[in-house]
Description:
By secondary structure, this protein is α+β, with helices and mostly antiparallel strands.
Amino acid sequence: MRTQAALLLVLVAVASACGGAHGAASDPNQPPPPKTTVAVESRKLVDVNLYALTGTRRMRLGTVPGMSTRNFVLPPDMVGNTDRIRFGIEIIGTLGHKSLGSERGFESEQEMSVRPGDELSLTIY
């Protein structure tokens, strides 16, 4: 029993050491990665949620109210791993019209070329 407890303690210590190195701050001599942004202009009357899509990953960036423009910063790990990114649009408002219903619906996707530091622009119609 004492051997198993010691082995468990060693495994916990090794896991903690590995986890700490992964989450450590980056090299202070290295410049931070450039921010990649997307300006989203919505010409819809209803609000939409904006998602960044890469491979099987879907990350919600935020809400764009109807007839407005919002700016979002893309997560560096989503930009650095690929040269293309897709944006998904989810309608979240219906203006109370009975024929439109009230459930959210994933409406469309838009794919764009992207590199770290780019300033993208997306218009929703």
